[in-house]
Structure formats: C-alpha cells, structure tokens
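testing teh design pipeline on a random one, pls ignore if ur not involved
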C-alpha cells in the first residue's frame, strides 16, 4: 500500500490487507491503492464516497434507480462471512461499485442474516428495510489505480487509469458488524445517466 503525505495508520493497512487476502485471486493489490484525505477526493467521487451513508442508498440516488447485486466470490467460516461483489445499475446492468464485504453474522437478527446469505439484495437495502440501528464510519479514502481486473470489471475507458474508493465499518447496535472495501466505477462510466 502506498502512503499519502499523511500516511495510513497501521490499523488501516492491516484491515485493507486482511480484506484483500480473503480473495487473492481477484488481482487487486495493496500496491494499487493510496490512502488520500477526503478533502482531496475529486468530484463526482467525493459525493459518492465522502459521507456516512450506505453506498447502496447513495448510488441509487445518483443513478436514479435500484441497484442489483452480483456476488463474485464468497467465503464463510462460522459466523464470519465475506464476499466479493459488484453492484449494478440501469437497464444495461452497468457495474457501478466493486467491493469486498466482511460481515459478523452473529451481529444481526435471523431474518436479516437469512437475506444477507441469500445474496440477492444489496446489504445497505437490507439494513434500511429492516430498520437495523446502524452507523457507517469511513476509515480511509482511497485512490485506486486500475489493473486489468478492475478495468474489465468496470468496462473502463482505456484512457482512464484511476478511480476512488473507501474503507468503512458499519456499526450495528453499537458493535462493529461489517468491514467494507468499496471502489466506485471510474468517472467516465459512473456519470449520472442522461435523462
């Protein structure tokens, strides 16, 4: 992981490496990621990332419609459940977010847990619809250099080299329940749909 002038804390570095290690086959490397201050995240990424809201809700507002979930890989060890996923928008099912989620299933009620494991609905929508008491705490904002895997995932324009993301924790009922790595589509493919 490359450091910004402020430098990431050891805890951020450890959490990022831990999430990436869950799905090493995806080709995303910590060497492709630089921690940046939220104030240096340019638009439209800033409005998409620098906030305390669910990415599902933010991206649904930005793209004027509900998102669909596709789980690319999953791993479960007891109550520890992780998945690599994409969220898609619009009739073309354009990928608008790629991420890794690690959830402590013992932090939620049975009906919420069941929906999460069904892997058909984005996590943010599940938590909102079930009125789960929650708080999203961003831990770091990230400049992400596009490698071949991310470029293909986002169908990114060849001239686009970077995008942005964030690491965050969702606190449910006063306990950290979800660790997130969320990378939004490059601006050329994440622009608001024309009406």
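output:
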């Amino acid at each position: 992981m490359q450091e910004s002038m402020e430098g990431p804390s050891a805890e951020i570095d450890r959490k990022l490496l831990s999430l990436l290690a869950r799905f090493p086959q995806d080709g995303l490397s910590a060497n492709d990621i630089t921690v940046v201050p939220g104030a240096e995240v340019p638009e439209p990424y800033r409005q998409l990332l620098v906030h305390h809201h669910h990415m599902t809700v933010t991206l649904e507002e930005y793209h004027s419609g509900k998102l669909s979930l596709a789980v690319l890989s999953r791993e479960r060890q007891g109550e520890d459940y992780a998945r690599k996923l994409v969220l898609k928008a619009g009739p073309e099912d354009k990928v608008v977010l790629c991420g890794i989620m690690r959830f402590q299933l013992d932090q939620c009620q049975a009906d919420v847990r069941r929906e999460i494991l069904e892997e058909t609905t984005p996590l943010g929508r599940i938590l909102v619809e079930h009125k789960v008491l929650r708080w999203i705490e961003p831990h770091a904002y990230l400049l992400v250099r596009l490698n071949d895997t991310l470029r293909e995932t986002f169908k990114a324009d060849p001239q686009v080299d970077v995008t942005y993301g964030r690491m965050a924790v969702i606190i449910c009922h006063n306990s950290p329940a979800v660790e997130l790595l969320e990378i939004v589509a490059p601006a050329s493919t994440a622009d608001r749909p024309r009406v």
